[in-house]
Amino acid sequence: MKQQPFPFVRDGILQDRMMIFSGNSNIKFAKEICKKLEISLGSADVSTFSDGEISVDIKQNVRGQDIFIVQTTSNPCNHHLMEIVLMADAFRRSSAGRITAVIPYYGYSRQDRRPRSARVPISAKVIADILASSGVHRILTMDLHADQIQGFFNIPVDNIYASKIFLDHIINQNFKNAILVSPDVGGVVRTRAIAKSIGWDIAIIDKRRNRPNEVEAINLIGDVNGRECVIVDDIVDTAGTLCNAAEMLKKRGATQVWSYCTHAVLSGDSIEIVEKSNLDGLVVSDTVFLPNNRNSSKIHQLSVAEIFAEAIKRINTDQSVSSLFE
To answer: How much is the pTM?
Structure first.
């Protein structure tokens, strides 16, 4: 009998060779993806020994299967990263057909270059090498901090975007005289792409950073007086820079300040900082799990599970992922 090509599709119907598993970083998100695809989450025991070492035990036969491991590398980043590495190795040693690491938020992405004269690692590249060497065949992620990180991998990378979900929400806000604001010069391309879709003007915040999570000065390029400002970014971490930007925009005459950030890292006392800030709203995706004790009346979470489900289905059936955003 002639062997079927991989992945196994007959008469345009997806056959039973796709399996989705999850680490412990965002099980709720993995289940949402499975719900959209109308399949069950795979059975795996991912736990911790008494000394802190991670234990992985795959409870199902995965030989020849198209495996997708859903695991965001949020806090504790190192623990969640090690879970996905060990899971990938377990699947490789169990003769899985293909292993795709679905990493909604790719940790260490902000360490993507070596500043002049600094003796530091390029951590994003190190993590890319670790994932590939563990047996991962391809990566599916969302809104990488820098697009060039895809070049750190020697395996295929699909970088998808939350912009469609955010655009729908922005349009439904019915702003009267809005302007999109890039939080720094590096985010201009992302902001301009969204502005082009809805025909808005853009402004740029010029911030100068002395050290990580600390900003020296903030300047504004553009006029925001009497306008609603919408800040678009990929990550909100300590929220200090974002809230300082909101304060400056209000002082420059902005009537409202909203922010749309894909990855809600929100470390430390960031929730309290957002709650007390001049921000009118912070809209984030569910790439990072937000427990109930991290809620704020100003924070609104939108799901990107449907986008990931569609991307996974297209990878499984060898269809274009990029056409999702054309």
So the answer is: 0.90
Whether the CB-CB separation of 173 and 258 falls below 8 Å is answered with yes
Active site residue 31: no
Q: What are phi and psi of 10, to 5 degrees?
A: -125, 125
Sequence-separated (6 or more) residues with CB below 8 Å from residue 69: 21, 22, 23, 84, 87, 88, 91, 99, 100, 101, 102
Given the residues 31, 36, 207, 313, select the one marked as catalytic. Answer: 207
Q: Which helix (H) or strand (E) holds 67?
A: strand 66-70
The stretches of 104-182 forming alpha helices (DSSP H) are 123-133, 163-172
Q: 150 near 124, Cβ under 8 Å?
A: no
What CATH topology corresponds to 163-302? Rossmann fold (3.40.50)
Calpha distance 205→196 (Å, rounded)? 19
pLDDT tens figures, 260-273: 999 999 999 999 99
Tell me where in the chain the CATH 3.40.50.2020 domain(s) lie.
Answer: 9-161+306-325, 163-302
Spatial contact of 194 and 178, defined as CB atoms under 8 Å apart: no
Q: Can you name the CATH fold of 9-161+306-325?
A: Rossmann fold (3.40.50)
